[in-house]
Amino acid sequence: MSKKILVLCMAALMAVMAMVAGCGSDKKAADGExxxxxxxxxxxxxxxxxxxDPNAYDGFDMDLIRAIGKEMGYKVEINNLAFDGLxxxxxxxxxxxxxxxxxxxxxxxxxxxxxxxYYQSGLSIMVPKDNDSIxxxxxxxxxxxxxxxxxxxxxxxxxISGAEVKELNxxxxxxxxxxxxxxxxxxxxxxxxxxxxxxxxxxxxxxxPELLTAEDYGIAINKNNxxxxxxxxxxxKKLKENGEYDKLYEKWFGAKK
Length: 257
Ligand code: GLN
Fold this sequence. Notes:
Blueprint: H1 2-31, E1 34-40, E2 43-44, E3 48-50, E4 57-58, H2 60-72, E5 74-80, H3 86-92, E6 97-98, H4 106-109, E7 112-114, E8 119-121, E9 123-128, E10 144-148, H5 152-157, E11 164-168, H6 171-179, E12 185-189, H7 190-200, E13 205-207, E14 215-217, E15 220-222, H8 226-241, H9 244-253
Parallel strand pairs: 1-5, 1-6, 10-11, 10-12
Antiparallel strand pairs: 2-3, 3-4, 6-15, 7-15, 8-14, 9-12, 9-13
Helix pairs in contact: 2-8, 2-9
The structure holds glutamine.
Glutamine binds at residues 41, 44, 83, 100-103, 148, 151-152, 171, 189, 215.
């Protein structure tokens, strides 16, 4: 009888030990969780910006990359960098991906891989409200224009004949320059201009309805990492299929047309 109890106790002990071992290996997996190093320029609301907590990053891109990381089983680590430093950082291997309202274009494709497009954007103009002479892009010839350095806005502004282009560090700086009357107009991504009008409550400016370009945003990945590109695309596809992407879109931009 006592031998039987002993055997039962042994069995129970072994079961407990197996559970502990199991827990141990789970813990190890959690500790050794893969980290996705994300680069962004967190001065581009509503896509990426710093909220009241300076260490927290908010915006559509931030929510999307966290959801993608979760889907892939990676812990997401956000690094806030200068926009024109993002691709060099990716090339140097300091970050794994860039999500920063970054337009997919040929010039960048020489240096990085892109995920499938995740947002359709375009460039718009902002001018002082009392300016009636600038009605569209063709009226920007010979004007002073502020843009963010290293962006598609900067590329387009430089094509306008006779324009004096001021390249500033962030979209926020372009708005300050316009308010200070240092420029006649700014060119930025449309959703960023639109958001400024709503959030800043600056009543002295307006955006023009004309869109200069149609641009797609993509997540940039190191040129050699096709495996990661595949994982990001698979996660993005899943989020589009399961409704999670639409939820985030609605949270930041309202219902999809
Ligand atoms: N979409 C623009 C570009 O890729 C601007 C991006 C940004 O300023 N974050 O150049």
